[in-house]
Specification:
alpha/beta; GMP Synthetase, Chain A, domain 3; 14-stranded mixed β-sheet; 4-stranded parallel β-sheet; 24 strands; 39% helix
Amino acid sequence: MHDIEDRTVHQLFEEQARRAPDATALVCGEQRLSYRELDERADRLAHHLRELGLRGGELAAVAVGRTPDLLTAVLAVLKTGAAYVPLEPTGPDRIIRHVLAEADPLVVITQEAYRVRLTDAAERTVLCLDDVPLPDLTGPLPDRAGPADLACVFYTSGSTGLPKGALIEHRNLLHSYRGWRQVYGLTAEDRFLQTATLEFDVFTADWIRALCSGGVLVLAQRNFTLDRTASPAELHELLLRERITVMETNAHTLRRLFAHLQPLGLELGSVRLLSVGAEKWYLDEQLRLQSYLGPAVRHVNVYGVAEAAVDSAWFDTTALTGEPDHPERLSLIGRPFPGTDIRLLDRAGRPVPPGTPGEICIAGPGVGRGYLKRPELTAEHFLDGEGGRAYRTGDIGVLRPDGLLEFLGRAAGRDPAAAASLAAVEVLLRGHPEVRESAVAEVETGPRRTGVVAYVVAADGAPAEPWALRAYLAERLPERLLPEAVVPLPALPRTRAGKLDTRSLPLPAPRDHAAPGPGSGGSAKAVRSGKGGGFLATEFGRLTPATRWAAVTAAGALAAAVLTDGLWPGSTDLSRVPSPWAALFQLLYLFEWLGFGLGLAFLLLGGPLLARNGRPLGLTLLSRLAVGWLLAAWWPQDNWYRVSRATDWPRQAALVYGFNVSLLLAALVLVGFLAWQPERPKGR
């Protein structure tokens, strides 16, 4: 392809519109738009946005549902010379408010269905595309952007705090596009499936790959990552119906799709290229899928970060020089895309030798400006040198003897060697025949105390007993690397981008509730048969967190029901109450008993939940008691009130001051807990 360095992303699209105006550009359900139609719609909206004052140096938030208006809005913003901030309109209120407050866009482009929540969150103009007449003006606007101007602001996933806005220029995206076109062999004959969430950087990558190549962008109307009702069968049907040739997806979605295909002997139709990212995709999975689908489908494992314009490294199995040992333990990301440089650094920023784990540092034209309004984080992660800008990712990799880069995992502030050790525990667990997925993370196991915990998802039909898995690890790892606990889960929690959500991993059971491991002084057989000490505690510890809460709440509610008549005789006597009021009062008593049970559960089990918020220990303990009191207080209050005479002023005063005032004080404690702003961890 001829040189593109002196252009912008939307100029490449406009060239395609002039070259083949009647070619299909966008497909969304039954709607089809040609390149001419999409270009003219974007022109009209761009002229309207310019009338609102949008121009170079400004930001516009695009919060549009999965319709053709979404691409119209993105292209229109770029045509004005401004940059767009992709904002998923169905996302959490907390994220929407944070992004709009920090980015402070001149205008928020959306649809009528999302007007209320976006108007409530933004003080700027909210423009609904389905409720505004657009001028009948087409053609380029004056004062358009150049290659060094800002194109978009990617808000990262915020795995350790609120998301940060990565500033990406047109030349960063064009650099990535050049690499995709060269490595993937993109042509105007390709049909690209777009399933990524709007806020995720892969959304931008998908439309650039498609519309700058002259191909067809198929915008899925369902989000197969977020929408739990969207089945792999629907995704497969869409691939076949729209004759998709190029598709990027996350590893989690691909696993679900493959689990649907294989038992039925189904294939992917016209798909020739399948790229997989977002989290670890293991080599055994890649080889298994390649063997199943055959040589006609190319499988690429991609690695990248939003701060460096999406993708920086890629691997397909043609790079292998022999049969790999333990492919179930490897996630290979291969080599950098053309024009990108990847270095591995130690904690002090020095290069590490081959074979030594190091932090992945990306350099080259794809690296963006830094973070919006975060100079301290920009200085920490973005480096300026002779070769231009570089970005320290916080991810750990190692250069193998065959020259291929292996991805190990996140550093999360740890030394690369320590992070590599955690990754080793994860892959060892994944290699167990009873384990389908695994994750190892450092979590807060108590107030101001952290520990390493392993999480596993059992293979179909496998028991995956925690004590047995820990014994398996103990045979293969030194004591210092053993996790404190192994926690079975029905599924690993995921972010909106399909990545592992480490903040949503549940806390393990307390140490005295854990099943005995190797050398703990009790045999697994005794525990399983009920003959060992602490059997009830052990069995309780094996329950899921939700089940433990339900069990304690039910036990507390039963105790409240039994104790009520003993402590306050006659307080629940409804023999003189006519129907239907008697049933309503009986329902009230039931709620009181459940409230007592829930308060008891929070007092016994809720401490670790509050401790994870990073507030001071004293405030955390006080808040725990306050919540328990708020939940349980009306049970004794109502019963004492019902057995008191209306003129018993001493008791009435005691009730008011003993309960109502204390409830107000408990509420103030909770307000203080919520208002306290802990120091947020640095990093991504």
